[in-house]
Amino acid sequence: MQTLQSFIGEQRFGEAVQNFKSRRDFAGLAAFLADTLASDDMPTATQAKAYNELGLAELQLEKPAEAARAFHAAIERNPQSVNPRFNLANLALYARNYIRGLELFRKILEIDPAHAGALHHAGLCCAMQDRFEEALPYFERSAEAAPGVMGPDFWAGECLVRLGNFERALPHFRRALEIMPDHTESIRGLAICLYETREYTEALTACDTLIARGGGAEYLALRVKGDVLLALGQGEKAALCHLGMAELDFDAREYLHLRSRDLAEQGSDQAEIYAKTIADHLRGMDADFLELLPEQQ
């Protein structure tokens, strides 16, 4: 049972820690915590909190090894404390030690099965190893535990795209965009799923949004938009759209040739106009490029 004296002591300790944090004096905070922990009269529970704070201060000082030792010390003093376990697991995740990170996040979930952060980060550890089927339940459970957070729904959608389940991925991307409407990666995922589920009108809108926004998402948006236009029987517009990829990346020409060949092999009624438009414009693009070269002496 906590005494009034210990309560007041813990309150003062917390105020001192917050004072250092508000001034972003993490070196001073680390020194204060080390001195405080050297005393023998601190309750075990407060020691656990102090070691956790020490670990966070060491992270701010870019000392991950020292931080890890502090988090381990916090766990030793209070094995049921989730915060130092979460911080220690995040160290492994950020170091790309995904196997170790997953092990540590799973230990947290044994203590708190609904811990949204541990669920999300366990999913990340799996996804970063291309273990998408294993990652998916973690993201779905995290989305349920933290319905106002965008990340779990986005990653659930990403996993389902990788697994080829576009219809099931759609609501995840929609929910992610309800939370964060400008999230480019979710718009990209939405565009792919809308194309794959033949919701072409909305797919075009998503692609146009990405193209207008810029910032690196245009290439995939042009590819998906061109494929949508082909599905709608607009071969010339599709070719012009795919040619935009070649303007962004020379290597995209290989995709254009392969797409043209596949259309011909499939007997598509758009194959001829697509191939002719591609050929005509590539010749023009090559001519423009050659004009920029210095004349041979």
Structural features, described:
The chain is an all-alpha fold and 297 residues long. Helix content is 79%, strand content 0%. It is built from 16 helices and no strands. Helix 7 runs antiparallel to helix 8. The longest helix has 22 residues, at 271-292. The chain is elongated, with a radius of gyration of 27 Å. Mean pLDDT is 90; it is low at 1-8 and 288-297.
Q: Give the N-to-C terminal Cα separation.
A: 93 Å
* Proportion of helical residues: over 70%
Number of helices: 16
Q: What structural class do you assign from the helix and strand content?
A: mainly alpha
Q: Which radius of gyration do the C-alpha atoms yield?
A: 27 Å
Number of strands: 0
Any idea what the shape is? elongated
Mean pLDDT: 90
Low-confidence spans: 1-8, 288-297
The share of residues in extended strands comes to under 5%
Question: H/E order of the elements?
Answer: HHHHHHHHHHHHHHHH
* Sheet with most strands: none
Indicate the topology.
Elements: H1 4-22, H2 26-38, H3 44-60, H4 64-77, H5 82-94, H6 98-111, H7 116-127, H8 132-145, H9 150-162, H10 166-179, H11 184-196, H12 200-213, H13 218-231, H14 235-248, H15 252-265, H16 271-292
Helix pairs in contact: 2-3, 3-4, 4-5, 5-6, 6-7, 7-8, 7-9, 8-9, 9-10, 9-11, 10-11, 11-12, 11-13, 12-13, 13-14, 14-16, 15-16
